Amino acid sequence: MPRPQLNGRIIVTILVLALxxxxxxxxxxxxxxxxxxxxxxxxINGRIVADMKSGITVGMSRDALYAWLRDHRLTATNAAYAVxxxxxxxxxxxxxxxxxxxxxxxxxxxxxxxxxxQNPEVNVKLYAGWTGSCGAIIYEEISFDRHDRVAGxxxxxxDWTCL
Length: 163
What we know:
By secondary structure, the chain is an alpha+beta fold. The protein has helices at 8-55, 62-71; strands at residues 76-77, 83-86, 92-96, 122-130, 134-144, 150-154, 159-162. A hairpin with a 5-residue loop joins β5 and β6.
């Protein structure tokens, strides 16, 4: 029994009907992200940043800062201390974000350099929302003085990445 062939008009009809549906799904995803995700993340991050501003003080030791961050389920990272390994395909992939760097730690990332290798700065990563095609992350940067005490905290705006 011969296999039926698709008629060209049937293919065009399917495409004409599928295109508006796909467009509606795309627009709906963008709208949901914009009006639901972004405000929700903004509220959550507003509380986190308020807690950081009241709990993290200049002069605080690195150990005390790390304890505070852990208590608040936040992680301090620095890309210069990320751990890289080759996977089974031979590609170099990051297996660790370089969490909780300490003074004078060996730098492990080939293309990253901390601003202060003796007392490396750290970033606290906060997710800031998404739309269908974009996502945002905020990196709050904490720097340290030569005595390894908090020298300052930079509270930043979201960094959006889109497809």
